[in-house]
Design brief:
mainly alpha, three-stranded antiparallel sheet, 503 residues
Length: 503
């Protein structure tokens, strides 16, 4: 039985008959509404006129003990308690009872599953009925359910509330209250006080069980617990009493303060705190790393922070930061499509703290990750530049080999060197003497530079050489293997099926 609800037993007064009978009682059966009767058209209850009267019925159900959730299911909450009343308070404040699950999660601080459990309990207790049931279709926005706040028939029977149907053609759930029995007035007054009071989220449990048990007993008896003198600096009292609630507290003499025998009344900051804030312990560091990972990694968005903290517990205990984790994930490789982020993270972090066991190794991994980011950034810039030149330029290079040779011959004839005056038909000697005239050291240096640029994703050296000199001369200069890799990388960059930095 909940402490926030009225202490009503199963044995409740029966409604007053034509002749008052003080000894007449009735035993109400267990309160449960099957799923088929949880709609407004099939509900046996009546619609509450406003949220205040509906909260009276909610507190009555919580205190009567007629509804036990575990009688009908093997999971979920064990009783209709303060948490269910808190959810009902949010529903009572709505003008149109159409709450979304995310709205109730944000207002109550509960999980999505808990909110669904308590909504189901309110429907089974006969306090809610579907007007329109929400839908969740893949690919479309979810539609919230709309409820009608209902008052069960058992509530009217227990308190002796009389109802009338003012319109004969109206549905049965539109009947209105016309009176109440004398035996139920006192209980109705208690329920009215509880309906007017806000039920807030309970505080964290104390280490001592004695005060918590005493506070619970005081709440059940309706008593007001006095505030101790430890939590209040200035005694707040009126009247003729001369005894202060603060006791006979007195300050120590200055001689003891000077000698160090007594402590100063001014509190000092703890030496175990940095900047006035408590240092994080091992669990705190795990949760801090988990929160940063869910913010930094897109495929961890929406994952539960406690689960990510448990998955990353080993690296967090080893002193890793979110940057170290990003460097390690770069070495392992990230997936482009993730079905379960926490499971993928557990696989990728397996044994990471034993491989990168020193700060130097982790720093090297971070440097490689940052270098890859810079290379990817440059590659994107080159792609955008090439795309703009390809689609916005006035002339496009031909793709056919024969057409390229004809274009090169035409350019050579139009813009090539002319014969000297007086010597018609005499051609100039070759300036370089072909590729055979190049220095082997220069060729080796060019191949090394082209290979390094290919590792960074830059294929412009190979593609320019092939376009200007032809593939045969480019292979003589850079090697067939290097030219083949450069052309494959350049063709893959134009395809939507290839992505750099992912597997």
């Amino acid at each position: 039985m909940s402490a926030v609800a009225a202490p009503a037993a199963v044995m409740v007064p029966a409604p007053r008959s034509s002749v008052d009978d003080a000894d007449a009682v009735t035993v109400l059966p267990s309160l449960f509404v099957p799923e088929a009767s949880q709609w407004l058209s099939t509900s046996p209850g009546r619609i509450a006129s406003e949220g205040y009267s509906w909260m009276q019925a909610v507190h009555w159900v919580a205190g009567s003990g007629l509804y036990q959730p575990r009688r009908h299911r093997s999971h979920g909450p064990r009783s209709f308690g303060p948490t269910t009343v808190r959810v009902a308070q949010e529903l009572a404040a709505l003008f149109r009872c159409r709450p979304g699950i995310e709205y109730l999660v944000r207002r109550t601080g509960l999980s999505e599953r808990s909110v669904e459990y308590h909504l189901g309990m309110l429907r089974e207790a006969g306090l809610l009925a579907y007007i329109v049931r929400g839908t969740r279709v893949r690919g479309e926005s979810a539609q919230a359910s709309e409820f009608a706040r209902m008052i069960p028939v058992e509530f009217d029977v227990a308190l002796g509330i009389r109802t009338v149907q003012r319109d004969a053609e109206a549905p049965e759930y539109t009947r209105a209250v016309s009176g109440i029995a004398e035996a139920g007035r006192e209980l109705m007054a208690k329920l009215a006080k509880k309906a007017a009071r806000k039920v807030r989220k309970p505080r964290s449990k104390t280490s001592s069980k004695g005060p918590a048990r005493g506070a619970r007993q005081g709440a059940e008896r309706g008593a007001v617990t006095a505030v101790s003198g430890e939590g209040r600096c200035t005694p707040m009292q009126v009247g003729t009493s001369t005894v202060s609630s603060a006791g006979t507290t007195s300050l120590p003499p200055e001689s003891k303060l000077a000698s160090g025998e007594a402590k100063s009344p001014t509190p000092k900051k703890s030496s175990g705190k940095a900047g006035g804030r408590r240092k994080l312990n091992a669990v705190g560091r795990r949760f801090q790393l988990a929160r940063e990972l869910t913010r930094e990694l897109d495929w961890l968005r929406g994952c539960a922070v406690p689960r990510i903290a448990w998955v990353a517990r080993n690296v967090a205990d080893a002193g890793w930061t979110v940057t170290d984790v990003r460097g390690w994930l770069h070495l392992r490789g990230e997936a482009g499509r993730v079905h379960r982020g926490s499971g993928l993270l557990a696989v990728l972090l397996a044994g990471a703290e034993t491989i990168l066991d020193t700060p130097a190794k982790r720093a090297d991994a971070v440097e490689q990750w940052r270098g890859a980011l810079e290379a990817a950034r440059r590659h994107r810039i080159e792609q955008v530049r090439a795309r703009h030149e390809r689609y916005e330029g006035a002339w496009q290079a031909p793709t056919s080999r024969e057409v390229q040779q004809q274009v090169a011959a035409a350019f050579a004839e139009a813009f090539g060197p002319k014969p000297r005056d007086g010597e018609p038909g005499e051609a100039l000697p070759e300036l370089v003497g072909g590729l055979a005239g190049l220095d082997p050291a220069e060729v080796k240096r060019s191949r090394k530079e082209a290979g390094q640029r290919l590792l960074l994703g830059d294929t412009s050296v190979i593609t320019v050489a092939v376009d200007s000199m032809g593939r045969e001369d480019a292979e003589r200069l850079y090697g067939a293997d290097l030219v083949q890799r450069g052309l494959q990388l350049a063709s893959g960059a134009r395809s939507s099926l290839m992505t750099y930095g992912r597997w």
